[in-house]
Amino acid sequence: MVLAAVCVPSAATPSPAATPEPAAARLPEQVPGLGPRTLDGIPDDARQVVVVTGAGRNASRSRVVVYERTADGWRGGPQWPARNAQRGWTDDHRSGDRRSPIGVFGLTDAGGLKADPGTRLPYDHSGGFFIRGTGVEGEPLTGSFDYVVAIDYNRKPGTSPRDWTRPMGAGRGGGIWFHVDHKGPTQGCVALSASHMRQLLRTLDPALHPVVVMGDAASLSR
Fold it and tell me: With contact defined as beta carbons under 8 Å apart, do 161 and 148 qualify?
């Protein structure tokens, strides 16, 4: 006689304990890398902060990160390599010193030789942004002003970046912009690649009252 196989249930194997979901990284309550003095200069209504951190007080290389205030804290975007002035940074910018000014400045106006790539800032599309000649290391400047964002240092906000009004006087310099990288240090501006300039222009939102916080790391941490 052939006995049919009988399936005998085995003892129940305890299921492994559920692995808890990793907790979401907590967003910082303050913009990273900024000290009390610098934070105090950021307006209360600024919910978009572009941080330009120089590699050193006398260095012409820097990095740029855009932070946006959310209900959970400050969320940072991608990090972009940048260039600043040939001789680095200063708390007392003067015309021709080849240093970028340290501080907190508004970002209210944009423009360029090329058409508006989709910014919400007022955009002055003009042939007046054409530039020729060479930079401080002999590199060609052509295309540097294809896209620009005016940094509100010693200028009249609410006007084209090409407006040369200097509220603090001509001796304190001016014409400090974000503009397209020309593969060399700047006179005082901050330069990004063309693709990153387009991203910056599309990201900035006047409803969020954007500002730039710029300087070498040690100065920003004060």
Answer: yes
